[in-house]
Every structure is written in C-alpha cells, then in structure tokens.
Amino acid sequence: MTALKIAVSLPEPLVEHVRKQVRQGRAASVSAYVAEALAQKADSDDLAAMLEEQLAASGGPISRTERAWADRALGIKPKRKR
C-alpha cells in the first residue's frame, strides 16, 4: 500500500493525547495512530452502510407498533416522556 503525506489541522488537546499514546508505547507513531483511527472509522462507515442496505431490503425500519411489541416481549419498560 502506498502511503500519502497530507496535512491536517487538529485540536491541540487531541494532538497531545495522540503524542502521549506514542510516548507510552501505545502507538508506533502519530501517523500510525491516525491511520488506525481512520481505518476504524472507515470500517464503521462500511458497517453502517451495510446495515442500511439490509434494513432497506427487509422492508425498512420497524414501526412504533413493532418496537412496542418487541419491547414488551423483551420486558423492556417504555421510556417516560418528559
């Protein structure tokens, strides 16, 4: 895989957190930490897209009636409205 060098602006506290992780040996470098974080985000995005596709293929989101039935079946008490 070819690595590209890019410039990004990040909040200072976030940069300090990442540098601390590197100092403590939890990441090989700032670049490695950022690459891993971006890979995890990409995986999450891919999963969300797959779930949306599956939901659409199955007829869409469940209705309030279906959710209420499922909550009752699972013993989940409804949230009170404030």
Order of helices and strands: HHH
Into which percent range does the helicity of residues fall? 55-70%
From the spread of the alpha carbons, the general shape counts as elongated
> How would you classify the quaternary structure?
single chain
Question: What is the makeup of the main sheet?
Answer: none
Q: Report the mean per-residue pLDDT as an integer.
A: 91
Total helical elements: 3
How many domains, as an integer?
Answer: 1
Q: What is the β-strand count?
A: 0
Describe what this molecule looks like in 3D.
Helices cover 62% and strands 0% of the residues. It has one domain (12-74). The protein has 82 residues and is mainly alpha-helical.
Topology:
Elements (H helix, E strand, L loop, with lengths): L11 H12 L6 H28 L6 H11 L8
Quick take:
With 82 residues, the chain is mainly α.
Main features:
82 residues, mainly alpha, 3 helices
